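Let us work through a complete example step by step.
Step 1: write down the sequence.
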Amino acid sequence: MSFSTAENDVCPASEYQSNLGVFRDIPFFAQLPIDAVKLFAYLCQRETFRKGDYLFKQGDDDGRAYYIVKGECGLEREGAGPGGPPLGGRGPGDFIGGLALLGPMLRVFSLRALTDLTCVVLERQRFQKALESYPQAYPAILKGVADGVRRWEETLYAGQDGQNGARAVKAGVSLL
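Step 2: predict the structure and record it as tokens.
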């Protein structure tokens, strides 16, 4: 079974080894069978973005997840004012957009490169096609998502215990 649609559609061997290391370190993929992780490492692509380029814009459903290898990017939201500071920064080692691999997901923020940026990118179509070969991987993926939500909330609320409890009720992702 081939997932490639173009001659140069997959990564070279040394890039593959690097991508394999990336996927093994991302909690979203860490509990998956190694053969599935190898397939994702093979199917992903490295992309570069110039300072100022948008990886995605608010309202997009690009169906892609990004692992930042090099560079910095910032989250922006419409209505925050043009040219205003990013709402949050992301950098090397950050994995963004894993939920977009699972199904349609409109972006709540825009993500723009603050410096030249290199990312490992996996597309929803490739991810879902690959999972057809590994249906046993779904429970591990769901566990990875749940663990990621928990870690995100722990980071969000670190040092806020007892402060502004009403805001916490509205912001907790795991309350969905």
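Step 3: interpret the result. DSSP finds seven helices and eight strands in the chain.
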